[in-house]
Amino acid sequence: MLTACNSAGLPTRPDAKLLRLGENALFALPDVGVVVRVARSTEMADRVAKELAVARWLAGHRFPSVHPTDASQPVEADGRLVTFWEYVPDSSTPDSVTVLAALLRDLHALPNPDFPLPVLDPFPIMRRRLDVVSGIRREDVRFLTEACDNAEGEFRDLVASSPQQLVHGDAHRGNVLLDGGRALLIDYEATAKGPLAWDLVPTAIAVDRFGLAPAEYADFVRTYGIDVTKWHGYPVLRITRELGMTTWLMQMAQSGPAADEFALRMESLRKGDHERRWHAL
């Protein structure tokens, strides 16, 4: 990170604050008002370029989002791709999912961008995770691989038969920041063209998996205007989303709370238990 910041002309210190560690590592540099986003590898170059393009396009449409800085980016450093974003101090995530519903309603009302976007397809990144993971039981990797095999065909058929519209791709409450009175939608790495229902599935799943109150989900539905659980394609999108969440967690599940949560998710997936409570980490 220090090498990339130097290349971009940003002063930094070794005690930069780690904000999030997942598919990317995010570090805050409050003194210069910048968040540094470090991708896992240069193999994610297309996704990083797309994220920057989407962010700039959203800014041009005055959509409430986080903007990349004016630095020349991405920067390649130590085998990783680094991008630089505006820092939102004292931000928090919203208490109510209606904030997310309103953002998605407005996002889905935008025209399709005037640059190419990929068709929604979460399976390549899931398979890449499964190919490179270490420290996970072989039978768990095999089960998830077979589950992806079983789900992929139905998912592709559903996407191909649905209108191709702009979707955020990873639309959950954790990707909303409150900046004073403004709600900002962040993280455009998974943005694609596909069925709008994909962006509604995480909140619907949260009722069973993460304890979201049914009344809160009802508020989400009223604000957005559609209940995705009534759509015929919901079961296909749900299992695909759950496999994505589980393979994401798998990358950090060698020990500690992540390992315990991964084991819980694996047990529920094996049993087909759709109401087993999961825990966000």
Automatic annotation (TrEMBL):
The protein's name in its UniProt record: Aminoglycoside phosphotransferase family protein
Pfam (any one): APH
InterPro entries on file: Aminoglycoside_PTrfase (IPR002575), Kinase-like_dom_sf (IPR011009)
SUPFAM superfamilies according to UniProt: Protein kinase-like (PK-like) (SSF56112)
Coiled-coil region(s): none
Signal peptide positions on this chain: none
UniProt domain Aminoglycoside phosphotransferase: residue ranges: 34-230
